[in-house]
Design goal:
Blueprint (H helix, E strand, L loop, with lengths): L1 H27 L4 E6 L2 E17 L2 E4 L5 E6 L6 E2 L4 E6 L4 H33 L5 H30 L12 E3 L4 E5 L7 E2 L12 E4 L4 E8 H4 L7 E6 L8 E7 L11 E9 L11 E18 L4 E3 L2 E9 L4 E12 L3 E6 L7 E7 L1
Antiparallel strand pairs: 1-20, 2-11, 2-15, 3-10, 4-6, 4-9, 5-8, 6-7, 8-10, 11-14, 12-13, 12-15, 13-14, 15-19, 16-17, 17-18, 18-19
């Protein structure tokens, strides 16, 4: 019995040894390698670039007040259409104490002068009627009296302007009324009733009461990489795709390419603007994210092959053509390439449509 187990153990050891040897032998044999066969095709190739950007109105105007004060009334809201000259808001003037005091003193002085001129006029009128003074003296007194009345009216009007910001002679054109300077859509009203506003001056840009834009004149604003900006030119067409409106694809034409690059975001890019043509029935909003697709080059009905089968060596390009199908022999052949779209590439010279090219490797 012991002899039987001893023989069994030796048989198992021998089997393990033979199996290991066979496994190692099989692994040491070179794998048979074959390749997919690719044939050229006739087709169209477009090389495009895609720019990221936004839809913006060409002209976006910030409406600022012509006088400092506090917003007393707002007559519009975002999304509302206004015409040039429409009142957007009204401002309540907070008068400066020194200016108010000066204007009040002017009124008081004018009234004193008026009272004196009135007494002299009435006395002159009485004496003239009695023919005790000449007509010339009476006319002088009359002129002085009329001038004094005008001075009072002017002083009181100046006081109203300082106190309320409104002239009694031109109330409809008062600076306290903030008006739209263009016809368009209200994009934003960043102030509220009670907000303090400051007029624009040398030291301050002024407070924006509302932002208005003509939404019938829109542009696409994006950035193009420096590697592609040299292939673009003003007047080239592009197609816009809008993430929020996938069914809308308006056409656009490049009208501006910045002459100076911007590397603030890590890559050197150039600003680009394109005028958009859109159907009036389509409601586009300012700030929509969008992509602009530009065709850089186009080839129609040309010989094409997958770019993956091309070998690039410096400025030269090669493919491997099947010359012996029995032994699977491929010959390295130089070709002249043209336009590519990142997947396929145009072949101008070197092979014809009947060529059979080496493709991806297949391991067995």
């Amino acid at each position: 019995m012991k002899r039987f187990f001893r023989i069994l153990i030796w048989i198992i050891i021998a089997a393990v040894f033979v199996g290991t040897f066979y496994f190692l032998y099989q692994n040491s044999q070179p794998e048979e390698v074959t390749y997919e066969t690719v044939t050229p095709q006739i087709g169209d190739i477009e090389r495009t670039t895609v720019l990221t950007g936004k839809i913006e109105p060409r002209d976006e105007i910030d409406i600022k007040p012509q006088i400092s004060g506090i917003i007393s009334e707002i007559l519009v809201e975002a999304g509302q259409t206004v015409n040039e000259g429409d009142i957007i808001a009204r401002i309540k003037v907070i008068p400066d104490a020194s200016q108010l005091s000066s204007a009040q003193n002017r009124v008081d002085a004018a009234k004193i002068s008026l009272a004196d001129a009135k007494d002299k006029y009435e006395r002159s009128k009485n004496l003239y009627e009695r023919k005790l003074i000449s007509r010339e003296e009476h006319e002088t007194a009359t002129t002085t009296y009329n001038r004094a009345k005008s001075e009072v009216e002017g002083a009181e009007d100046a006081l109203d302007i300082v106190r309320n910001g409104i002239s009694r002679f031109n109330a409809s054109e008062s600076n306290t009324m903030v008006r739209a300077t263009i016809t368009g859509l209200i994009l934003d009203v960043p102030v509220k009733v009670g907000s303090s506003v400051i007029q624009a001056n040398t030291f301050n840009d002024g407070t924006t009461v509302a932002t208005i834009a003509d939404m019938s004149d829109l542009i696409f604003k994006g950035n193009v990489d420096e590697t592609e900006v040299g292939q673009l030119a003003v007047g080239m067409p592009m197609t816009i795709s809008i993430g929020a409106l996938p069914e809308v694809s308006p056409e656009a034409v490049i009208e501006y390419i910045s002459p100076k690059g911007d590397d603030s975001k890590g890559a050197n890019t150039f600003e680009l603007k394109a005028a958009i043509t859109v159907d009036p029935s389509v409601a586009l909003r300012a700030g929509y994210s969008a992509n602009g697709t530009i065709i850089l080059s186009h080839a129609k009905d040309v010989l094409t092959i997958p770019e993956s089968v091309v070998e690039f060596v410096g400025d030269s390009t090669f493919v491997y053509c099947l010359t012996d199908s029995v032994k699977s022999v491929y010959t390295r052949t130089a070709i002249e390439t043209g336009t590519d779209d990142g997947i396929n590439i145009e072949v101008k010279n070197g092979i014809d449509k009947d060529a059979r090219l080496r493709g991806a490797q297949i391991k067995k």
